[in-house]
Structures are given as C-alpha cells and as structure tokens.
Design brief:
The chain is mainly alpha-helical and 220 residues long. It has a domain at 53-158: Hypothetical protein, domain 2 (Endonuclease III, domain 1, Orthogonal Bundle). Helix content is 55%, strand content 5%. The chain has helices at 21-31, 33-42, 53-62, 68-79, 87-91, 95-100, 105-120, 133-141, 148-158, 170-180, 188-195, 202-213; strands spanning 2-6, 45-49. A two-stranded antiparallel ribbon has the order 1-2. It is elongated, with a radius of gyration of 18 Å. The termini are close together.
C-alpha cells in the first residue's frame, strides 16, 4: 500500500511523495525538537501511495491477526481466484474456493461484506477527495472487519491524508515512548499532547516515528 522512496536524482516520477511532504518536514523540524533530529537522521525518504481502494482494504482484511509471511501466502492464493481483483468478481467466487486459499470463514464473510459495500455504491469512493477524514472513517468502519486502526492506515497510506493521528497503533505509541518519554509507557492522552506540535502534519510525524523503529522500509 505504501513504500519508502528515496528522494533524489534517481527518483521515479510515478512514485512521487505526497506534494506536502517537504513543507511538512520543515514545519515539524521547526516546531518539534525530536523531529528536528529525527528527520535529518533518517535521511531523504518518504512514503509513496499505491494500490486501488478495494484491493488495499481486502489485503488488510486478509492480513489481520496473522504473521506477515502467512498473510502474503494466503493473499497470493486468494488473488489468483478472480480474473481481476474487483468487488464484482469477488462476489462471484465460491466460498469453498476462498476457504481453500487459506481464508477463515470469518475473513470470507468480511471480504464479501467489503465487496458488497463497494459494489452497491454504499461507499462514496468518487467523493472521498472532497470528504473529511471522519466522514470517510465512518463509511469504512461500517464494513465488517474494518476497525478504526485499519481506517486510519487507509487514510494515511492510501489516501495520503496529511493529518492522521492513529492512536490505536501500539507501534506508534511505543515510538513516542522511546523518543519523548525515555521509554516510559505512554497513554493516548500523552500521545495527543505530543501531537499538538505536529499538527497539521501528524501523518508525516507518525511516519518518522514508525521509521525510527523499523530498520527496513515500512509497508502497509
């Protein structure tokens, strides 16, 4: 859904970072002492946005509560079932075939519900660019298997919304603990207080906090 990309002479135009990235970095380094150190330390990297909405959300459902490698194997098998990964095609699949790909009965139900939401027009995908974050989250969490965490990750990594603060993400809280509280446990309230200096670029700050914990490029 998103990958790290070096910014430099070898950059690829079709994988450009969000247009606000440099402005956000300047703001964060000016307003926040940790970001002033962290952003230069981590180098010229940024997220890039990939994938279509349906496939992105379907992959998030497949990957729930399983190891990354296992999720990838199941996804690869599942992705071979439809001729193309579209809501209509998923709705034509047989439950037995989906189960044979390694999906649990519950995840089959979740994927069908996701496909129904897209296929029926209950999701206003074409209007998302003009909708605020909370309105999109409300649409997404009405789908079975889509949590607030999944919705936040979708806003940040797929839609590229600049001011997402995913307080349900334990890795983000751990990173804030390490960077701002000397490793002491932090509450959601503590995280909100830290993020006051990040606004309106909480997504970018969150990215660098995650990156500070991950030696490899972040993917979602």
């Amino acid at each position: 859904m998103a990958t790290l990309k070096k910014v430099g002479n070898d950059s690829q135009p079709d994988l450009a970072p969000p247009g606000y990235w440099q402005e956000a970095c300047k703001h964060l380094m000016k307003k926040d002492r940790v970001m002033r150190r962290l952003i230069p330390e981590l180098g010229n990297v940024s997220l890039t946005l990939r994938g279509d909405a349906f496939t992105t959300l379907a992959r998030s459902i497949v990957g729930q509560q399983v190891a990354v490698a296992s999720a990838q194997r199941v996804w690869e098998k599942f992705a071979l079932l439809p001729a193309e990964m579209t809501p209509a095609n998923v709705l034509r699949l047989k439950v037995d075939d989906m189960r044979a790909a390694g999906l649990s009965a519950r995840k089959v139900e979740y994927l069908v519900d996701l496909a129904l939401h897209f296929d029926s027009g209950r999701l206003h995908v074409g209007e998302w660019d003009g909708m605020d974050d909370d309105a999109i989250v409300a649409e997404l969490v009405a789908i079975r298997g889509i949590s607030r965490w999944t919705a936040d990750m979708f806003l940040l990594f797929h839609l590229g919304r600049p001011n997402v603060m995913p307080l349900d993400d334990p890795t983000l809280l751990q990173g804030i603990s390490n960077q701002y509280f000397s490793g002491e446990p932090v509450s959601r309230s503590d995280a909100r207080e830290v993020a006051e200096a990040w606004k309106p670029w909480c997504s970018v700050a969150s990215w660098y906090i995650w990156r500070s914990l991950a030696p490899m490029p972040v993917q979602c």
